[in-house]
Design a protein that fits this description.
two-stranded antiparallel sheet; 162 residues; six-stranded mixed sheet
């Protein structure tokens, strides 16, 4: 049985998310890119409707989709519409791009858990969007904070596990 899977999430600038997820148990690879937008072959300069997102390749024998969502909700603010830190616009929305009904149901249940925790001052505004295609970002965006350790990020661990 193949235990290698992919998950697609967006929570603001993709650099910070990638940098934090790359070291998580069970995460085999990270790639930043564009999801959920209007045009094919989006670029940083032209990605209308796309979120800056991340493709996570993971070993499901070591982690699972729910654990990925748990960490996702600990490292970004899911209560701000189209904004993370100083970054504003639809590109910086909080979104989960589900690949099947099981992921969608898991995401809905986890959002209910996050809201019930009352850790955030407002309700979760994360959008649930069907996955269509992941477009890798330009090479200079990949592993950006490894290449530029003093680069900007608004992502950090805010809480322990839900």
């Amino acid at each position: 049985m193949n235990t290698i899977k992919k998950a697609y999430i967006a929570g603001g600038c993709f650099w910070g998310m990638e940098d934090l997820f790359r070291t998580r148990n069970g995460i085999l690879d990270t790639e930043v890119g564009y999801l959920g937008g209007e045009n094919e072959f989006p670029t940083y300069q032209n990605h209308p409707g796309h979120a800056e997102g991340i493709e996570l390749t993971y070993d499901s024998s070591l982690t699972n989709f729910e654990e990925i969502l748990d960490y996702f909700y600990r490292v970004h603010d899911p209560t701000t519409v189209d904004r993370q830190g100083n970054d504003r616009g639809a590109s910086y929305r909080s979104a989960i791009f589900f690949q099947n009904e099981e992921e969608r149901a898991t995401a809905i249940a986890f959002i209910e858990t996050v809201d019930a925790s009352e850790r955030w001052p407002s309700k979760v505004v994360t959008t649930l969007e069907p996955f269509t295609k992941f477009w890798p970002a330009e090479a200079y965006h990949q592993d950006y904070l490894v290449k530029n350790p003093n680069g900007y990020t608004c992502h950090f661990e805010r809480f322990g596990p839900y």
